[in-house]
Amino acid sequence: MKSLFLTTSHSKASVLQKRASVNDVASVGYATLNGGTTGGSGGPVTTVTTLDALTAAVTGTSKKVVIISGVISGDAVVKVGSNTTVIGASGSWLQGIGLRVLNENNVIIRNVKISKVLASAGDAIGIQASHQVWVDHVDLSSDRDHDKDYYDGLLDLTHGITGVTVTNSKLYTHWKASLIGHSDSNGAEDVAITVTLANNNWTNLNSRTPSLRFGHGHIFNNVFDNNNDGINTRDDLEFNYQWIYKQERTSLSIPLTLGTRLLEAMTLEAQRTQPS
Fold it and tell me: β-strands 139-141, 170-176: how paired?
């Protein structure tokens, strides 16, 4: 059993300030490996203002950049195809509309604000069985006025995802925030998971901040504020936790059970995610 390496910081990283460029590529964490994550960089740029236009614009595997403009409301989850960059323009907002990356490769989602996606539709952002995905400067929330199953997850990463990095994002005011690894019985698939979580804010969340099963990962420079749960490791994984800032009502929930291995030293991949 390896011991937990934990250092606390006393300053919050600012988030949701940088506006994305259509040609930006992943520069941190697991999304930089295996050839990197470039999304639709260099492809045609399309701006959308309706749900139908968004749904059509992000489909397919051709290289493309899709910019969301204005407020788009609905009750749906939009499937994003491979080799795609999705960027939210300033002031844009998806209300009740989630994004799904399912069996795809090389996707970037940045500066997108998503709220109140009903459980009947799915997660705010769900990434499943996909590879090389960068999620950056996203704003994900709902409310806690309803039952815990009224909404699903804010950011779920499951079914053997690899090469995923989540940076500079806000997850807040929600029941079940982020599930990494599908279920206790899905280890054969989820053992492949590789994920980096860096410079994110987790605020006013009830649970799954995040919940982790299987795979390998690195969590650093995350802020946890006023949550009812903490980082929750469930089954057979290797994660490195660094520079974690905790505030009132947040616990670091790490059961040291057989098969849960917490890295004392960084792996080669984790070294690449060291903050400058």
Answer: parallel
Q: Specify the pLDDT at position 274.
A: 40
Catalytically annotated residue among 100, 110, 208, 213: 208
Overall pTM > 0.85: no
Q: Other C-beta atoms within 10 Å of 27: how many?
A: 15
Question: Each residue of 93-122: pLDDT tens digit?
Answer: 999 999 999 999 999 999 999 999 999 999
Q: Name the 3-class secondary structure at 123.
A: coil
Contacts 24+ apart (CB under 8 A), 264-268: 264/2, 264/3, 264/4, 264/5, 265/5, 266/218, 266/240, 267/216, 267/218, 267/238, 267/240
Residue pLDDT, tens place only, 31-60 = 999 999 999 999 999 999 999 999 999 999
Buried b (16+ CB within 10 A) or exposed e, 117-131: bbbebbbbbbbbbbb
Partners of residue 86 on adjacent β-strands: 66, 109
110 is catalytic: no
Contact 260, 235 (CB under 8 A): yes
Rounded to 5 degrees, φ, ψ at 51 are -65, -45
What is the rounded CA–CA span in Å between residue 257 and residue 101? 32
| Overall average pLDDT of the 68-79 stretch | 98
